Amino acid sequence: MKKRFADAAAALDGLLFDGMTICAGGFGLCGIPERLIDAIRDSGVKDLTLVSNNAGIDNEGLGKLLRTRQVKKMVSSYVGENKEFERQYLAGELEVEFCPQGTLAERCRAGGAGIPGFYTKTGVGTLVAEGKETKQFDGEEYILERGIFADLSIVKGYKADEAGNLVFRKTARNFNQPMATAAKICVAEVEEIVATGSLDPDCIHLPSIYVKRMIVGAPYDKRIEFRTVRERESA
């Protein structure tokens, strides 16, 4: 099966529809599928539910889709760097489901493993637990969290071989790996595609069976969320 496509628009052709749920990998601005996000924006698809650790920043990452008002709901953990997200949420224009970071990662991992739900102590006694089923285990209260399984996952890898085996780089592995499994179809963009057999089998983070389509997205510009500097010391 052909997995390599010429560009992001071609890789997403026939997969997008209004009202769909998309799992998007990345951690902050690290390891985000930039080319695929741009193609989703350009497609004009709307009423999206996005599952992502964060919502990008203004005009970067998923922030581009918020700016064009293509997002109906966000399921996220950390969203503090996006002013447009804040504005839409406070104005009642955007539905938001906040989820603790570890719980979000496990919800995606569980969904990808065919596990419809699991119990966790995280969030007990807080707003996170409102409306959720609870259960006692060994005298402790736990809340039921649902696994997540989306229509599409978009992820960014460091390297892939022609078969679709992926390697992630450092922090980019955090959410890309579990989200890649948590959807009917996974489309990946990578910095480089090498010949099958070039990657050390013991170093592959995502087996090719999960990756249906992929593109080379390089070159990328490195963007920084917060630039922190100190005063230059006088001579």
Structural description of this entry:
- By secondary structure, this protein is of the alpha/beta class.
- It has a single domain (8-116, 149-216), classed as Glutaconate Coenzyme A-transferase, CATH 3.40.1080.10.
- It is 21% helix and 27% strand.
- It has six helices and eleven strands.
- The strands form two sheets. Strands 1, 2, 3, 4, 8, 9, 10 and 11 form an eight-stranded mixed sheet that branches. A three-stranded antiparallel sheet has the order 5-7-6.
- 39% of the residues are buried.
Summary keywords:
235 residues; alpha/beta; Glutaconate Coenzyme A-transferase; eight-stranded mixed sheet; globular
Task: List the secondary-structure elements in sequence, H or E.
Answer: HEHEHEHEHEEEEEHEE
Tell me the fraction of residues in β-strands, as a range.
25-35%
Helix content: 10-25%
- End-to-end distance, in Å? 63 Å
Please give the structural blueprint:
Layout (H helix, E strand, L loop, with lengths): L7 H5 L8 E4 L9 H10 L4 E4 L11 H5 L3 E6 L6 H8 L4 E4 L2 H12 L4 E4 L13 E4 L2 E7 L3 E12 L4 E2 L5 H9 L1 E12 L18 E4 L19
Parallel strand pairs: 1-2, 1-8, 2-3, 3-4, 8-10, 10-11
Antiparallel strand pairs: 5-7, 6-7, 8-9
